[in-house]
Amino acid sequence: MATDSRMASRLLEQLPARQGFGDATLIRHRPGSIDLGGGNPDVAALPTALYRDAARDLTESDGFAASLRYVPAPGIPALRAWIAEREGVDAERVIVTTGGAHGLALAVLGTLDAGDAIVVDDPVYPLFLRTLDLVGAHPVPVRVGADGIDVDELERRLEEGLRPKALFTVPTFHNPSGGTLPDDRARRLAELADRYGFTLILDDPYREVGFEPGAVDVRSRLLDSDRVIAVNTFSKTLGPALRVGWMVVPEALSERFVRLRNRLDGLTSGTLQELVLRIVQRPEYPRVLADAGLGYARKARALQQALGARFGDDIEITDPSGGFFLWARLVGDADFARLHETAQDEGVFFQRGEWFAVDDDAHLRGTMRLSFSEQPVERLVEGVERLHRAWRQVRG
Ligand code: PMP
């Protein structure tokens, strides 16, 4: 519908509607259908008992009423200090955010101008591309694989003259493709950022949901570089409805990021920050994370096994060591748009790999992101049965 140009800003007027990933019109909800599309944690893995204790402790404490007041824009000091210690940085560099998406928007607004180029993962977390619409920055895809973003390819492109203002990557248990950037590659990335003068936006919501307890350091990487903005969230560990996350910014920019934040939402709920603090400080918290990781490992294996058993040589599947997703490629030719439709007729939803493309999606033909985090094992297995029925109907 056309609108009167005086009604809306150019930004609002021109924001594209969601296409592919996140476009609710593509999802046909029907009773009993199995959703392998989402990024929700397993509700059974969320520490509801710790929430109950924390809420009681908070609401019965003398400080409760004060927690309902405005709190400082960068976060309440005690939560900032807890995050800073965990990340191994000065608390001045920590800004508590209203979730990961908010941190990404702040990072984009604080780093990029209209027309700037930013290197991004290919396939990419699609909602990050939409954040770029806020400023009109231009994404440049670089392939990401089992070892994270392809640093050799990036270096070649830089040598050929590419001059990005920033780079965006999900370094651990990548969304959607599951890979993890090894430390030596991460170092090279920081060296390239220094040499060519660009900012690294590292978005790491899955690093605390590794399958093997202790295998991944929970600190963000490269925080000794003054070119890194690390964005994180409690969404995958404490639940996305909480809307609490954090970012670590370079010391030289910290005050200005707080100024920016003051012009947007001003603060993250102090009440929720007090709640989070009471949960993460509990001695049981590390166990909660470890148990969640073991649960996700079990589900990932179950989904891998079911896919392997049903599809055999017709499918290639990644073998992640954390996160919420398997990335799969169907071998052979088929009408993959029809597969997605037929799968929904059979009662299973997944994300088409093409929806994670930056621009050209030909190399993602036949790929799928299958989420194992939310559904119980028997639903994962049933989801594979349904997917396979759809595949039998459409394969060439
Ligand atoms: N980055 C990535 C890679 C994600 O997968 C998500 C959640 N799906 C986010 C950021 C956003 O996190 P939040 O829900 O805290 O906004």
What layout of secondary structure does this protein have?
Elements: H1 10-14, E1 34-35, H2 48-60, H3 64-67, H4 77-87, E2 94-97, H5 100-111, E3 117-122, H6 126-132, E4 138-145, E5 148-149, H7 151-159, E6 166-169, H8 183-196, E7 199-203, E8 228-233, H9 235-238, E9 245-248, H10 251-262, H11 270-280, H12 285-311, E10 315-317, E11 325-330, H13 336-346, E12 348-349, E13 351-352, E14 367-371, H14 377-394
Parallel strand pairs: 1-12, 3-4, 3-6, 6-7, 7-8
Antiparallel strand pairs: 2-9, 4-5, 8-9, 10-11, 11-14, 13-14
Question: What ions, cofactors and ligands are bound?
Answer: 4'-deoxy-4'-aminopyridoxal-5'-phosphate
Got a strand count?
A: 14
Kindly provide the radius of gyration, computed on alpha-carbon positions and rounded to a whole number of angstroms. Answer: 21 Å
Top-tier CATH class of the largest domain: Alpha Beta
* Helical residues, percent: 25-40%
> Major β-sheet, in short?
8 strands, mixed
CATH A-level architecture of the largest domain: 3-Layer(aba) Sandwich
Tell me the count of domains.
2
Rounded mean pLDDT is 95
Main sheet: which strands, in order across? Answer: 2-9-8-7-6-3-4-5
**Strand fraction:** 5-15%
Count the DSSP helices: 14
CATH superfamily of the largest domain: Type I PLP-dependent aspartate aminotransferase-like (Major domain)
Structural class: alpha/beta
Descriptive tags:
396 residues, alpha/beta, Aspartate Aminotransferase, domain 1, Aspartate Aminotransferase, domain 2, 2 domains, four-stranded antiparallel sheet, 14 strands, 40% helix, binds 4'-deoxy-4'-aminopyridoxal-5'-phosphate
